[in-house]
TrEMBL record:
Organism taxonomic ancestry: Eukaryota, Viridiplantae, Streptophyta, Embryophyta, Tracheophyta
Organism of provenance: Cannabis sativa (Hemp)
Coiled-coil boundaries: none
InterPro entries, per database record: CYTH-like_dom_sf, CYTH_domain
Pfam families xref list: CYTH
Domain CYTH: 1-196
GO MF annotation terms: pyrophosphatase activity
Name the record gives this protein: CYTH domain-containing protein
PANTHER family recorded: OS08G0299200 PROTEIN, TRIPHOSPHATE TUNNEL METALLOENZYME 3
Length: 201
């Protein structure tokens, strides 16, 4: 189970303010490409599951993820997640020719075929994400600029075994610095599938 705090920033100015304040704690920046897939008969989405292949400019391998049963309440996300590395050329080949997913030797893809009964895969498209990673006050923060075809979203994520405690620390930091924020109400994938940016509170 992956448990994360997810706080949405309203605009590029708020995002810039956060990244400026956190600059001394920057560890790395990832430029990510996220591609999503379902079964031809919506076998995954009908079970609230999603298959993702993620590419990063900092990693010679790509990551295959199966996420399921996501719940996002009061800025805290809980989701079942299974991940596995693949060679990037193989991942790129699967994105270019989705049918290859049915033949790849992969533990996760085997799960998708056997547990969800997916016989044929379809590509759903995807989006790009720029992720700044910080080590700050004992927390690993990921500050995201997510670029959809219909607009850009900004978000702070923090995976933690104590999400309520991490959320409190983050909210205090944002309030002390006069930075507006709200609790994220949808995952990046849900926003992508909706085709529009969620309204701000």
């Amino acid at each position: 189970m992956e448990v994360e705090v997810k706080l949405r920033l309203p605009d590029a100015a708020a995002h810039r303010r956060v990244t400026d304040l956190l600059t001394p704690f920057l560890v790395t920046t990832h430029r990510q490409e996220n591609c999503f897939f379902d079964g031809a008969a919506a076998e995954l989405s009908s079970c609230r599951a999603v298959l993702r292949i993620r590419f990063s400019d900092k990693d010679p391998r790509c990551m295959v993820s199966l996420k399921a049963k996501a719940v996002l309440v009061d800025g805290i996300s809980r989701v079942e997640e299974d991940e596995e590395e693949l060679d990037e050329p193989l991942g790129r080949a699967c994105v270019a020719e989705v049918g290859k997913l049915g033949r790849v030797e992969s533990r996760i893809l085997k799960r998708v075929r056997e547990e969800f009964g997916v016989l044929e895969f379809v590509g759903l498209g995807g989006f790009e994400n720029v992720r700044d990673v910080y080590e700050w006050k004992g927390l690993k923060l990921e500050v995201d600029e997510t670029k959809y075809g219909f607009g850009t979203c900004y978000e702070i994520e923090c995976e933690s075994v104590d999400p309520e405690g991490a959320k409190k620390v983050l909210e205090e930091f944002l309030k002390e610095n006069g930075i507006e924020y709200s609790y994220s109400e949808a995952s990046k994938f849900a926003i992508f599938r909706s085709g529009k940016l969620p309204s701000l509170p």
